[in-house]
Amino acid sequence: MTTATVEVPAEGRAHVTNLEWTAITQDRGAGEHLYVLSDLLDGKARSTLSKATLKARADVTFPVMKGSGPERRTPPTAVAGTPRIERVQ
């Protein structure tokens, strides 16, 4: 999952100032629930996935992502109200 930090000036266009990633994984046995993979590996969350399955998912995810900077391990904090999305052409 990618988290973007977007700055919106009082005038002008908004722009992305930072991108961060968080490895997530899906647990179909738990009703299609999504979990932060690191939380499962660290024992901070529980799922129906086996330790072997979690390790296999980590083994194919983290080596690919390590060149993209550190994983975001905390939820983002909203600093504004509900966003309004409009298409600019």
Automatic annotation (TrEMBL):
Lineage, top-rank taxon, reads Bacteria
The segments labelled Disordered in the record are 64-89
- Protein name (record): Imidazole glycerol phosphate synthase subunit HisF
Species for this entry: Arcanobacterium wilhelmae
